[in-house]
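Example S7 (structure tokens).
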């Protein structure tokens, strides 16, 4: 049952008396399929609409005339096992097998896009599906397969800087020197210093196993993204903040950094 659905309950057979009830608005509509209107708990989902007699005339078969046809074929069928839907993804939901009727839904923008990959609880057209998916229209046929992706062969690099610990010669008795004042000055008089190296490094796709730091650069396709400064860089290595082409929570960790040549 959905919001606005009406049902009748017989309260007397001789004479026949019937009472009509209407399913309440969401989220209370969720109770309509769990409780009969005239039992304990039924008032959570149903509202008394009045008495009734007779019956409705049969309605015509449902049509999809009001839905615009989307694209030149149907996207991939929605699957509860797919967990990596992102904002903008299109899916097909088959609502009738004979004749075949297919509806197209699009994953909503962040933060609602987080619900798209959470299985049957947010399936398109379900009770909570509208939190994740937007109805786009109907479709027929299938989308022609795309060409196989071609690996990027250009040159796309950045200077990946890292600080390591090194040593340098020092004057005996100076700050941090291993030789104290009065000791003979030798080549073994050393102190510890920070050494920064910035070798040219390929701009790769974001990697879940990588530990990113400020100014590290990754790409999505040819678009580059640079890891933010402290403390935001702590998010750069988390999958929830992986850069995407659409705006989202990742913007707290990464900034756009141009495109690869």
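Recovered sequence:
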């Amino acid at each position: 049952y959905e919001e606005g659905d009406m049902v009748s309950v017989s309260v007397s057979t001789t004479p026949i008396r019937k009472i009509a009830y209407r399913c309440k608005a969401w989220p209370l509509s969720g109770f309509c399929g769990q409780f009969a209107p005239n039992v304990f708990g039924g008032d959570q989902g149903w509202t008394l609409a009045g008495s009734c007699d007779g019956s409705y005339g049969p309605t015509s078969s449902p049509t999809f005339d009001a839905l615009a046809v989307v694209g030149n074929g149907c996207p991939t069928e929605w699957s509860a096992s797919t967990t990596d839907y992102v904002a903008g993804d299109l899916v097909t939901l088959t609502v009738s097998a004979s004749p075949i009727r297919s509806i197209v839904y699009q994953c909503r923008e962040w933060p609602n896009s987080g619900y798209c990959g959470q299985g049957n609880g947010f399936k398109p057209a379900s009770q909570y599906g509208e939190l994740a998916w937007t109805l786009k229209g109907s479709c027929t046929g299938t989308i022609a397969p795309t060409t196989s992706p071609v690996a990027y062969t250009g040159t796309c690099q950045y200077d990946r800087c890292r600080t390591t610990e090194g040593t340098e010669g020092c004057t005996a008795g100076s700050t941090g020197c291993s030789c104290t004042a009065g000791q003979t000055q030798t080549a073994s008089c050393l102190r510890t210093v920070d050494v920064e190296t910035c070798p040219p490094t390929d701009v790769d796709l974001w990697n879940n196993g990588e530990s990113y730091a400020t100014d590290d650069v990754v790409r999505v396709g040819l678009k580059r993204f640079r890891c933010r400064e402290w403390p935001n860089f702590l998010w750069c290595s988390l999958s929830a903040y992986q850069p995407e082409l659409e705006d989202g929570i990742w913007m707290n960790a990464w900034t756009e950094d141009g495109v690869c040549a």
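Notes on this example. The mean pLDDT is 86.
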